[in-house]
Records
---
Amino acid sequence: MTAASEFHLPAGSTGNSTYETIVGPGAREGWVHTGLRVLALAPGGSEVVTANGVEVMVVPLNGGCDVAVDGTTHTLRGREDVFASATDVLYVPVGSQLTISSAGGGRFALASAVATGSHPVALIRAEDVPVEIRGGGNMTRMVRNFGTVGAFDQMDSLIACEVITPGGNWSSYPAHKHDETVDDGEHRESELEEIYYYEIQDAPGGGPGFGFHQTTASADDKPIDVLTEVRSGDTVLVPHGWHGPCAAAPGHDMYYLNVMAGPEAERAWNITDHPDQTWVRGTWDDAGIDPRLEGESR
């Protein structure tokens, strides 16, 4: 069995001052379809990125930026931090060269997936990002669907969204999987690998927050066993298996950016619930929405 540390990449483990996180398709054994880089720019800084073999979504984590692609500059207004609001995002097709610059500095996630087809550059404004409230009670979380199936489909294989889980709540629950292709007329499942990139809200006094992530094996021939504490800037890779629950420590809101893609020709996101946990879906209506997230959906 591969060690859990192989799938949990702590913040700062890249040893790279420009990119706080580096995950690339093909860069590690068994990792094929998805990538993520977190670019840190000082005020007035810029970086040239070439999307070799991948399509990219630029997602400001904090701060705003300008992205120049094919002679046109797109301004992403950004945000104070990931908990403040949704953000403008920019889709850039495979093979493009983009220059990212930021007058005020900031941190910018570059979510990517292997692609062959070309699509137009697309700027998605924060106010146009569909926001979904999922779950109920202490399983309530908010999903910003800027790059999910049905929300934005003018791309090849990339699926991306971000999730806010209030402190003390559980997310990615029930645990679920999408590691094989199933279409038997009654149920569908899509084969997708997935990246979880985390940020955790600090304590009022500035102390670091934390949460937990779990991934377990869905079959004997796909061993994986991850139960790990996550902090801001940590990344967890899910090549296969049941993933979830993810738990936010009380007092510390949790954010994660999900990046998914797989080998199927159809870009689809179909999951299978863990059979021991799927019953919790039936409790959500009676539990009601966590009041901290009431009025957030659109």
---
Amino acid sequence: MRGLDAAQPIHNLRTIQDVRDNSLALERLNLSVLSVFAVVALSLSVVGLYGVLAYSVARRQREIGVRTALGARPSDVLALVLGQGIRLTALGIVLGMVASFWFTRWLSSLLFEITPLDPATLSTVSALLLAVALIACWIPARRAARIDPIRALREQ
């Protein structure tokens, strides 16, 4: 600039990195807020699913004790409780997919180089949710499989 016209003042001098960072600031904020909400939602869903299953196991303790007394193996009880949790999770994933189809117009403005209905992304997120739900279901299911049938029948 000084070689062209030495009298011209140079102001607002920034690197291309700064210009790029400033132009992407709003998108980064949106992504950060969305990420925080996603983590909170995932945490709430895990805690909620765990709570529902733990309550269900506590309420069905007598039934599980009777099943065990009649010959149900711990693996059968484990499969019963895990199946209940997987059904709840599958329902949640299906409802989430339907909701994501409704929000595609809003989501498309926040995405970069990916479509809102990208099958790879939707299947990866669904698999992640299913894996996290299995972990949340495992603790109450393991507790149900360890129920002593004699103690469960005596308590009620």
